[in-house]
Amino acid sequence: MISANPDSELLEADAPASSPSDLDALQTEITAAAGWIPAVIDEMSKMVVGQRYLVERLIIGLLSNGHVLLEGVPGLAKTTTIKALAATVKADFKRIQFTPDLLPSDVVGTLIYDPREHSYSTKRGPIFANLVLADEINRSPAKVQSALLEAMQEHQVTIGDQTHPLPEPFLVLATQNPLEQEGTYALPEAQVDRFMLKVIVDFGSEEEELRILDMMASTAPRISIEPVIDTATILYLRTLVDRIYLDPNIKNYIIQLVYATRRPGNVDKKLEGLIRYGVSPRATINLTLAAKAHALMQGRAYVTPLDVRAIALDVMRHRLLLTYEAEAEEVSTEQILGWILDRVPVP
What we know:
Elements: H1 20-32, H2 36-44, H3 52-63, E1 67-71, H4 78-88, E2 89-90, E3 93-97, H5 104-108, E4 109-114, E5 119-124, E6 131-135, H6 142-154, E7 156-159, E8 162-165, E9 171-176, H7 189-192, E10 195-200, H8 206-216, E11 229-230, H9 231-243, H10 248-262, E12 275-277, H11 281-297, H12 305-316, E13 321-322, H13 324-328, H14 333-343
Parallel strand pairs: 1-9, 1-10, 2-11, 3-6, 6-9
Antiparallel strand pairs: 4-5, 7-8, 12-13
């Protein structure tokens, strides 16, 4: 298992690289750390066939401290991929199966009264873990969804009158099925906005389907994954993400993309009347962090417009609300974002 030095001061927050010497030093560190991310991907490939796009987005969420929502029909290895990622990290992992009868206390925990001692003790829920799989998150009502809000945003939960910090790193990886509507609940907009990325999971190729058949068509497939990194390594990689250089032109490009969703008529007249609400300021923050993490995965100490464009759909698709006119014309969120990406000038 690869581990960062726990005694190293590199886990402390560093200022973003700005001068050529800072960039050279950061590039040296990124090059030295280049083996960690491929090691995670290679280990996950023992259990996950294909789905490279999904795997990379999960790692981007892990590197940039952002929660990830996966949407796809059953059987596309959403849960398997998340469990494979958790297995490659030496960290505490918990799975919560969301159901209509789930209670908030089943997620965050509750107070237990001891009649003999006449006192209360705290029983912590499964949310107290580094990686939390919220499986079929749209199966539970709003009261349960709201129990996650404080945890996802503040990395803490309140039980009774006490606030408890969650372990770091802390990441919620959620799945939902877009097909079945019976027995499901739409996620509140406030919660959806707290997911850094929403990744649409699709079918693989015929060759990948054949590999799945050869690997998994057994009554007892035996696949073991070993941890290759630990939490100290993740926190160290996050300091590298924070230090990656972001040129003022790239910052302005991100702002222009965000504001194009709020003032679509300034970009293209045909977009007028199709967008009800543009993306929130969290999109600006998350697009910046995700682009930095994407640059790190490419082994670069600076962000390019291609990094921003590569991650833009996953950051903004769930934050964009369309009008009834757009739905009537069968215009999708991806189509609108594609038009915006094509028309906003690239620096």
